[in-house]
TrEMBL record:
This is ABM domain-containing protein.
Length: 106
């Protein structure tokens, strides 16, 4: 049985990051993610009144999660997104899915 994987990344932006630039980089990263096989869903959210973001990606398999992670460190689009993030703030965790409902993208 193949286990789906959820990747959760908490982060803040660099103090000098431009929000408009971040939105452009996020849109480009989202387009990159949308084209990757093995990715079910991605959601980016920001906690109100704090600088904390959370990025959640659902993968079909652990192998898919690893492949995208490896591509992230090499891909120019991903690196433009990452350049705006405070590296010391990044907390990345993977979870094995135990139960889920059908995901429908809106």
């Amino acid at each position: 049985m193949t286990t789906n994987v959820i990747e959760v990344v908490n982060f803040t932006l660099n103090t000098d990051a431009d929000l408009a630039q971040f939105h452009i980089a996020n849109n480009a990263f989202q387009n990159f993610i949308d084209q990757q096989p093995g990715v079910f869903y991605r959601s980016l959210a920001k906690q109100p009144d704090t600088p904390l973001y959370i990025d959640v990606i659902y993968f079909a398999t652990p192998t898919d999660a690893k492949r995208i992670s490896d591509a992230f460190s090499e891909n120019a689009i991903c690196q433009q997104f990452a350049a705006l993030i405070a590296k010391q703030s990044v907390q990345l965790t993977h979870y094995e899915v135990l139960s889920q409902t059908a995901c429908q993208q809106s």
